[in-house]
Request: fold
Amino acid sequence: MNIESISKLKENFKLRNIEVEYFETLEEVKSNILNIIPIECTVGIGHSITLQKINITNYLLERGNIVYDKELAKDRDECKTLKKKALITDWYITGSNAISIDGRIVNVDHSGNRVAAITFGPDKVIIVVGKNKIVDTLDEAIKRVKNISCPLNAKRAGFNPPCVALNRCVDCVSRERVCNSLSIIEGQSDSNRIKLCIVNEECGF
Ligand code: SF4
Reply:
C-alpha cells in the first residue's frame, strides 16, 4: 500500500469514529495488542487465520487474561458456549474479510458470532487486516468477500457450496452456504471502540 492510500483510509475511517493504525509486520501488531489490553480484562477471539498466525490466544492466556476462543472448545456445545461468552467481553479481537479505503468494514459469517461481536457487545474491538483485504470501495469489498473469502473459507472449513468449485458467488441457497450473515460496518457511535490494525503483509482470505 502506498502512503497516500493509507492516509486516505485513515482519514475516511476517522470521520466514521474508527481508529486506524498501520504496522509493517504481524509481530508488531501482536506486541501492540499485548500492550494495550490490560491483563485483568476478558478477551473474545473471532476466528481468524491472521490471528492464528501470531498465536494471540496463547500469549494472552499465558500472561493471565481470560480468553474465550471457540478454537479451544472440545465439542460443539463448548464451541457455542465460547462464542456466546465472547459476545460480552471487555475486548474482542478478530480479522476481517475486507475493508474499503472509503471507510467500510465488510464481513461474512457462517453462524454470525463474529459479525455480532463486531457490531455490539464487547467494549473494545481490535480488527487485524492484511494488505490483501484492502480495496477502494464498498462494492469492491462485497465482491471480494463473496468471490474470494467465501470460497476459500468454505473449502478450509470443509463446506462445499457452489463457489468452491466455481471460484465465484452464484448467490446460492445451498445447505452448505457459508455466508449467512453479511455485515457492513459504516461507522461507530462510540469513538475509539473499534481499532483497525492494518498490516503490510498478506494475511488470510
Ligand atoms: S451465496 Fe453461496 S455461492 Fe455465494 S458466496 Fe455464499 S456460499 Fe458461496
User: Anything to note?
Assistant: Helices lie at 3-15, 26-36, 49-54, 56-63, 76-85, 113-119, 138-157, 162-166. The two ends are 17 Å apart (CA to CA). The mean pLDDT is 96.
